Amino acid sequence: MSHWNAWESDEMDESVSVVRRWEDLDTDILVKILQSFDIFQLTSGIAHPYVYVDGRSDKTLTRVLKISLNLSKGNITSLIFHFNLYVSDEQLTYTAERCPRLRRLVLPAWNRIKKTGICKAIRMWRDLESLTMPSIANPPYLIEEIANNCRNFSELKVMGPFDIFFASTLAAYLPKLKVLSLRCSMLIKDALILILDGLQCLEVLNISHCLLIEAPTPPAPRRIIRELDQTILEKASRLREFLTCMEDSCIMCQRTKNDEGLLRWWGGRTLKGISRAIKLWETLKEAITVYTGLSPATFFTVLALALAVYYVISGFFGSSDNHPRPRSVEEQMQPLPPPVQLGEITEEELKQYDGSDPKKPLLMAIKGQIYDISQSRMFYGPGGPYALFAGKDASRALAKMSFEDKDLTGDISGLGPFELDALQDWEYKFMSKYVKVGTIKKSVPVTDEAASAGEAASAGEPAETKETDVSKPAEDGPSAHGAVETPPGAEANE
Q1: Whole-number Å distance between alpha carbons of 349 and 392
Q2: Which residues are CB-neighbours of 356 under 8 A, at least 6 positions away?
Q3: Where is this region: Disordered (predicted)?
Q4: Model's pTM, two decimal places?
Q5: Best-predicted range by mean pLDDT among 297-301, 333-337, 474-478?
Q6: Comparing C-alpha atoms, which of 361, 390, 342, 73 is closest to residue 398?
Q7: 162 touches 187 (CB < 8 A)
Q8: Least confident interval from 2-6, 227-231, 246-250, 310-314
Q9: How many Å apart are CA 21 and CA 181, to the nearest integer?
Q10: Which of 23, 80, 93, 438 could form a disulfide with 342 if both were Cys (CB 3.0 to 4.6 A apart)?
Q11: Residue 201 CA to its chain's centroid (Å)
Q12: What are the φ and ψ backbone dihedral angles of 218, each rounded to 5 degrees?
């Protein structure tokens, strides 16, 4: 395929040959041509290879990596992993060893890569210039590795919450960063100011569709900023490009605010939908002109006037107020009741608030903390895409971004660093968006001795106790009559 950089076509009436380039070819035709090749033909002898890896199966992913990386002969410069791909340390190390010339890397949003794995890979990628990565709770270890090993690094894209800690890390380790994209992320205002002040070499800053948050000192609540103030605009005036969009009418801004799903790296699906909508609109405008002879603006003006006349005339024959509105519309118009504090409840009691009873609030727990998510009923309520999380402590499922029943638990033991970071991001998001209404009651196991004492008491025979047993608790350890169970995942958090 590398020999097909250009081809010549002789014109019948002209002796001069016309050279045509691949980039001049129609996209649809180019796609058809590329689809006719298998992976061996696509990756063999490519001068500037570009590998896109998508798939959840370890076996499939490993096979694709082995074939493409071995045939590329170490010439791969761009590597993009699908945002929902699960990559292991072994797969990342294997990739790094065979892509020493890598310049651009896009990491998946949810993965099994540990600190040692990503740091080892970064040390091999000394030519790395651009990185797209998920937001992590402890960024210094990764950013410091980039600063120490990647001499030409200049572009960073972060997806997920961006706080002051992350901003100060970039200012400390990557002061010469030229391009920073925080598109479609939750951005703290003070972090934005720190970036503008601390990164003096920054040329391009993209905060389009960001949810800009002002986080005052607790207990003052957080506040969404809907317009950039003059101070930020003045600081950003030195940039070559400062990309912003905070319009309420913008689809992407709305999704950043409301969407509780996976992080969108490039907004790929959304952009495809918008592109289709634009094409449909263009087709509709052409059809209106062809079939009516009117411009689209005139056509819709006439249509609006016709509807207005219809409603005026129909008003003479009966009031529209007498027509009952659908029940669903009335329910949507009713304001949500204020959250009710529940205190400590058990996991079994929490199941009653899964949305099956519309009179009860919709609740969900993360790391034992219960939040009222009634305002996002369209996502977490019955029929919603994340309804299985409601009424449960879904900590493990959120950390792994799993929809399997076995992961719908608050047990977070055995999770990796990236998964714990992802869970913390979810916790921050819930803390900023929803009201905490209670906690999950921790279970206290009953020992055999206590159980036998309880049976004796129920039979009317008081159990014998020694004075030393009840006078004071043991100083060297927990009481012999019971031990409080260690919270799930405590070892991992430590």
Answers
A1: 10
A2: 382
A3: 446-494
A4: 0.47
A5: 297-301
A6: 390
A7: yes
A8: 2-6
A9: 32
A10: 438
A11: 28
A12: -55, 150
pLDDT of 32-66, one tens digit each?
Answer: 776 666 555 555 444 444 444 444 566 777 877 78
Amino acid in the structure at residue 205: L
Q: How many CA atoms lie within 13 A of 62 on its CB side?
A: 8
pLDDT digits (tens, 9 = 90+) for 316-332: 665 444 544 444 444 44
**Residue labelled with tokens 């205190």:** 343
SS3 of the chain? CCCCCEEEEECCCCCCEEEEEHHHCCHHHHHHHHHCCCHHHHHCCCCCCEEEECCCCHHHHHHHHHHHHHHHCCCCCEEEECCCCCCCHHHHHHHHHHCCCCCEEECCCCCCCCHHHHHHHHHHCCCCCEEEEECCCCCHHHHHHHHHHCCCCCEEEEECCECHHHHHHHHHHCCCCCEEECCCCEEEHHHHHHHHHHCCCCCEEECCCCEEEECCCCCCCCEECCCCCHHHHHHHCCCCEEECCCCCCCHHHHHHHHCCCCCCCCCHHHHHHHHHHHHHHHHHHHHHHHHHCCCHHHHHHHHHHHHHHHHHHHHHHCCHHHCCCCHHHHHHHCCCCCCCCCEEECHHHHHHHCCCCCCCCCEEEECCEEEECHHHHHHHCCCCCCHHHCCCECHHHHHHCCCCHHHCCCCCCCCCHHHHHHHHHHHHHHHHHCEEEEEECCCCCCCHHHHHHHHHHHCCCCCCCCHHHHHCCCCCCCCCCCCCCCCCCHHHHC
In degrees and rounded to multiples of 5, residue 386 shows phi and psi of -120, 30
Neighbours of 63 (CB within 10 A): 13
pLDDT tens readout for residues 159-184: 888 889 999 999 999 999 999 999 88
pLDDT at 437 over 90: yes
CA distance to 135, 185, 228, 464, per residue, from 158 (Å):
6, 8, 21, 64
Question: CA 154 to CA 331: how far, in whole Å?
Answer: 51
DSSP bridge pairs for 155:
130, 179
> Position 14: which residue type?
E
Name the residue with tokens 């402590």: 393
Decide: 138 and 114 in contact? Cβ < 8 Å.
no
Residue type, 448: D
In the structure encoding, which two tokens stand for residue 230, read together? 């003059």
Report whether 188 contacts 232 (CB < 8 A).
Answer: no
C-alpha to C-alpha distance for 195 and 361, rounded to whole angstroms: 40
Domains in the chain, start-ordered, CATH in brackets?
6-273 (3.80.10.10), 339-440 (3.10.120.10)
- Closest by alpha carbon to 421, among 110, 181, 27, 191? 110
